[in-house]
Every structure is written in C-alpha cells, then in structure tokens.
Design a protein that fits this description.
40% of the residues lie in helices and 10% in strands. The protein has eight helices and seven strands. Helix 2 (79-89) runs parallel beside helix 8 (223-238) and helix 5 crosses helix 6 (168-176). The longest helix is centred in the middle third of the chain and has 19 residues, at 134-152. The two termini are 23 Å apart.
Length: 248
C-alpha cells in the first residue's frame, strides 16, 4: 500500500490560473526542471489537450484542478466499482497498477484504459525498490511495463514507487527507462480503513489546486474508499474543481 509508511509525496503543482495552454505547459516544464535539479520526485500533469475532468479539465477551470490516483490494483472486487463511480461523475483518474495484478486480471486493465484513464507503473510485486539489486529493479519496472503495454497499447511514462520509497538509484533507473517518479500531496491513509467519512474529510480538508490525491483500488479491503469516493468527487465539483489525469 503506497501510503503505509506515512511518507507524503512532493508533487509539482501546476500554477495555471489565468494562463493559456502554452504558458501553462511552459510553466510546468520549468517547475519540472527545477525539481529534477533538486533531486525531487515529481508528478507532471497531462498536457492540456489530454487532460480530462468532470468540469472540463484544466483549461475550463482556470487551473483549479486535482488529480485522483489509485494504487495497488487492478482488483476485481473494487476496481469496477471505482470505475463506475468515475464514469457516473464524468471524471478521469490515474491508476498505478501492480504488474502481477495486471497479469491476473488483464481485462480490468484494458477496461481502465478503454474508459479514458491513465495506467501507470507501480512495480511488479510491490517491494521496496531501494532494497533491490540493479537487475531485480529493472525486472520490477520492465516486466510491469510490458504487461501494461500488452493490455493498453501504451508504455507507462510514470513510476510510483511502492510506499513512496525512492532514492537516487530508483530515480536513475526510472529516468533511464523514460519515466518520471510520481508521488502525491494528499494522503488520507485509506489503506488503514479509518472509515469512509474520515477518508472523505481528510481529502477535502487538505486538497488544493493541483493536489495529487492518493487512494487505493487494490491491496486489501477497499470498500471504505469506494464508499468515500462519490462524496469526495461531488464536494470537489461543488467547490469548482475539475479533474485530470497524470502522465497521459
């Protein structure tokens, strides 16, 4: 479970209010350059043309956009329910999937991609990538890339390291494979099952424009996440937020 260690990811937040698409993209690239120079793990939003949300994506909300992300799937018990909620509200999200789960439930990954969501790499078996040898780390990433590509037709361009555990070796190998390292900025610890109301309030109390929200659709009992999701989306829409995908 990505949030289990209590680490909070530092995602680059796009500042898009009052800017056109070219300016927004230039600003995001500039922020990315600064973050990489500092050795930070970053999340680069999808380009404006690829972003999608219940209120029309970044361009349609003056930059007031958030990014829903789901880790540890796909899961036959919870992924379809989350997809149904996203479809009902017209929202797209980013799914960081575990390779062996894709191998077990390949049709679910195909469905996630077919419904317009972004499917990205969350390793093959959810280890702490910092503790692996070079060849073992390569296998975790490359094997997951291969099976996701087989189901979606696209190679993941982003990696979310399990537990948010990242170091120089992980960053370097991800970069060599053409991947950005993506963490998060809002973690309601839904994996700990604090109750649907707590998950919802933790998200809504901490969200800001550009927030990357960490949730889970696999790895355990995610019924509380499923129950919390409609309230999270409807409340954010009421505040004027749109939703977009990462690493599109």
């Amino acid at each position: 479970m990505s949030g289990r260690t209590g680490r909070r990811g530092a995602a680059v937040r796009p500042t898009t209010a009052g800017r056109g698409p070219t300016s927004r993209l230039r600003a995001a690239i500039g922020a990315l350059t600064v973050a990489l120079a500092a050795g930070a793990a970053v999340a680069l939003p999808a380009a404006p043309a690829e972003a999608a949300g219940g209120n029309g994506g970044p361009g349609g909300n003056g930059g007031k956009v958030v990014y829903l992300t789901f880790d540890d799937g796909p899961s036959p018990a919870y992924t379809p329910k989350i997809l149904a909620t996203l479809a009902r509200y017209g929202v797209r999200a980013t799914f960081f999937e575990i390779g062996r789960n894709v191998a077990t439930h390949p049709a679910l990954t195909t469905q996630v991609a077919r419904e317009g969501h972004s499917v990205q790499n969350h390793s093959w078996s959810h280890p702490d990538l910092r503790k692996l040898s070079g060849p073992a780390l390569d296998a975790q990433l490359s094997d997951t890339d291969r099976i996701i590509r087989a189901r979606t037709g696209r190679t993941p361009s982003c990696l979310r390291p399990p537990y948010g555990a990242v170091n120089g070796a992980v960053r370097s190998r991800a970069a060599a494979l053409g991947k950005q390292v993506v963490l998060w900025s809002v973690d309601p610890a839904d994996w700990s099952r604090p109750g649907a109301a707590a998950i919802r309030s933790r998200v809504l109390n901490n969200v800001r424009p550009g927030s990357v929200i960490l949730l889970h659709d696999g790895g355990g009992d995610r019924s509380q996440t499923v129950a919390a999701l409609p309230g999270i989306i409807s409340a954010l829409k009421a505040r004027g937020y749109g939703f977009a995908t990462l690493c599109g």
